[in-house]
Design goal:
It is a single chain. With about 575 residues, the protein is of the alpha+beta class. The chain has three domains: about 200 residues, no CATH class; about 200 residues, Aminopeptidase (3-Layer(aba) Sandwich), CATH 3.40.630; about 160 residues, no CATH class. Strands 5-4-3-6-9 form a five-stranded mixed β-sheet, sandwiched between helices. A five-stranded mixed β-sheet has the order 15-16-13-10-18, with helices on one face. A hairpin with a 2-residue loop joins strand 7 and strand 8. The N and C termini lie far apart (about 70 Å). Keywords: Membrane, Transmembrane, Transmembrane helix. InterPro entries: DUF4012 (IPR025101).
């Protein structure tokens, strides 16, 4: 007969389950209490960040310091609350785990930024007049920049690390409110990193590049996005800037008509020839087709020296949309028959001028007037912080590229977004790129739009990165008869008026190779090339008004399949919609 007691083994199991449930309840209570505290701390960090930004913007450094101390205290508290072993254990759980990991990562980023970036930035703000940025009567005082380079470098490094950590957080795997918070945090860190990175680059480069150690000459190449090239657009006008002792002046303005085609082109890299034959080496307008601005900048300098003589110390290429950012800082401008505002300057430069002024020679004169007016206004009447913001926004969109003939400066530039180079893979990220080059011969890219999506994962057991590009011609149906012949090219290059013909090159992660290529689901002939260690696939696409097409390429091999895949692309008038979507293997 039984005495009513459970067997020893069953009692042991019951006690074990009970203990485990008790520990689980304690752990849940532990992370709940700590989670509530961490969320409250992070809310205070966000509130303090807004207050700090406002204080610095108004120059209230006395008010900024206690706010910064409060941010540091709350960030440190949030980090401590979310970095213990119990919290990390919950982060390893399926489904809910990514939410715990994300909160921990955000807290760590906030703590790092407050300790390693805020303190150096406030030291800079105390020692440097942020309101003037060294501007005085059209001249930039170069001496303070050398003094602030060190603290800005520390802040730049901290923010760069924070950017990288923020990108590693998989927002899509978290609950919607937390996903929104992650994206807001990324946006704030990216904005700060762009501004601080620009200031740091300026502090390192400006003392020498603006003639602090001797006069410098720079070619300014202005690109027209209505006729696309890899780095933005065809070179429409060109000028020489002189810098000496921090003073910048516009010396000589020229048009592309001053640079007739060369019978024997400049030497080009194998990748450039594979994609574009010898055209960039013969035609000044096509030099911005070259994907790497180190090659393009040197070639532009060579063309200027060959035409006008002298020595060129560097090249600055900007596209027409930079004018939109700058005019927001300078105020309205008048040139030719136009009065330009930040709302209409892009339309004027890339569309309206061709209808209002049919003569290309007169168009060139008006473009020169616009460049001169904008340059003069930027140096003489733009509020310095607004000017820095305009330049930072333009740089973040890839609309400014700089090459220096001086190797130490070029090394710094090439490692930055301003250098216009294709970055190497890192342990955290890889990149893919999309280059658009017009072959219509007109100005029809005013009407083109793009959407780019990436997908990463595994196809047939192999790590895969998929890039999908959708290209659309939004020109009106009657473009052939209603748009000026100068805009449509009127069939001069064998393209029906109103149709857009474009070379679209897609390059993959470093070391990978294309495993699948299609356009609208069908295979067609393509060009292939190597850009460094990257495979590139180029389609030639013709679209009538209203037509759209989608190119899909899968890359496999080294670097493919990485979750953190950045997209680089030709700067268009309207920035392409970029997205990440689940991988659906095409092959």
């Amino acid at each position: 007969m039984s005495d009513g007691r459970l067997p020893v083994r069953r009692r042991w199991i019951g006690w074990t389950v009970g203990i485990l449930l008790t520990l689980l309840l304690i752990a849940v209570g532990w992370v709940t209490v700590r989670g509530i505290g961490a969320v409250n701390d992070l809310q205070q960090v966000a509130k303090g960040a807004s207050q700090l930004k406002a204080s610095i913007a108004t120059g209230d450094l006395d008010g900024a310091r206690p706010i910064a101390r409060s941010i540091a205290h709350n960030a440190e508290s949030a980090h401590a609350l979310t970095s213990d072993p119990v919290w990390h254990a919950f982060g390893a759980l399926p489904w809910i785990g990514p939410n715990f990991s994300a909160v921990s990562d955000i807290a760590e980023i906030a703590d790092d930024v407050s300790n390693d970036a805020l303190t150096p930035l406030l030291d800079v703000a105390a020692d440097f007049d942020l309101a003037s940025l060294g501007f005085a009567g059209g001249t930039i005082d170069l001496a303070p920049f050398a003094e602030i380079a060190g603290p800005l470098g520390a802040a730049d490094t901290a923010l760069g690390t924070a950017e990288s950590k923020g990108r590693r957080i998989d927002a899509d795997a978290t609950l919607p409110p937390l996903a929104d918070a992650i994206r807001t945090m990324r946006s704030s860190v990216d904005e700060a990193a762009t501004v601080v990175g620009s200031l740091h680059g300026a502090a390192v480069l400006l003392p020498t590049m603006l003639g602090g150690e001797g006069p410098r000459n720079y070619v300014l190449a202005m690109q027209n996005n209505a006729e696309l090239r890899s780095s933005g657009g065809i070179i429409g006008s060109i000028a020489l800037l002189h810098a000496e002792g921090g003073n910048i002046s516009l010396q000589t303005q020229a048009s592309t008509r001053d640079f007739p085609p060369l019978e024997t082109g400049l030497p080009l890299s194998d990748s450039t020839i594979a994609l574009f034959e010898d055209r960039p080496g013969r035609y000044l307008q096509n030099l911005t087709s070259i994907p790497d601005f180190r090659e393009a900048g040197a070639a532009i300098a060579a063309r200027w020296e060959g035409r006008f003589g002298g020595t060129v110390d560097g090249v600055i290429a900007v596209d027409a949309v930079v004018a939109k950012h700058l005019i927001a800082a300078t105020g309205d401008l008048t040139f030719g028959p136009f009065t330009a505002t930040s709302e209409n300057i892009t339309d004027i430069l890339l569309s309206e001028i061709y209808a209002a002024v049919p003569d290309p020679a007169v168009q060139d004169e008006i473009f020169a007037q616009a460049a001169g007016a904008l340059f003069g206004a930027a140096l003489s009447r733009a509020e310095p912080r607004a000017l820095l913001g305009a330049l930072s926004d333009s740089a973040a969109e890839g609309r400014i590229r700089i090459w220096s003939a001086h190797e130490p400066e070029e090394t710094v530039l090439a490692a930055s977004a301003l250098g216009g180079t294709i970055p190497d893979n890192t342990s955290d990220t890889t990149s893919v790129g999309v280059l658009m080059n017009d072959t219509t011969g007109g100005k029809m890219d005013y009407y083109t739009r793009a959407a780019i999506s990436t997908s990463v994962g595994t196809c047939q057991g192999t790590p895969t990165t998929q890039v999908r590009v959708t290209w659309t011609n939004t020109a009106p149906a009657d473009a052939a008869t209603t748009l000026p012949a100068y805009v449509t090219a009127d069939g001069f290059y064998g393209v029906p008026a109103g149709t857009v013909r474009t070379l679209i090159a897609v390059y993959g992660p470093e070391g990978s190779t294309p495993s699948h290529i299609d356009r609208d689901g069908a295979e067609e002939g393509v060009q292939t090339a190597m850009i460094g260690d990257r495979s590139a696939v180029q389609h030639e696409v013709s679209l009538a008004p209203g037509e759209s097409t989608t190119i899909t390429i899968e890359f496999q091999g080294t670097g493919a399949g990485e979750r953190l895949t950045e997209v680089l692309h030709t700067p268009l008038i309207d920035t392409p919609v970029t997205s990440r979507s689940p991988l659906r293997c095409a092959s």
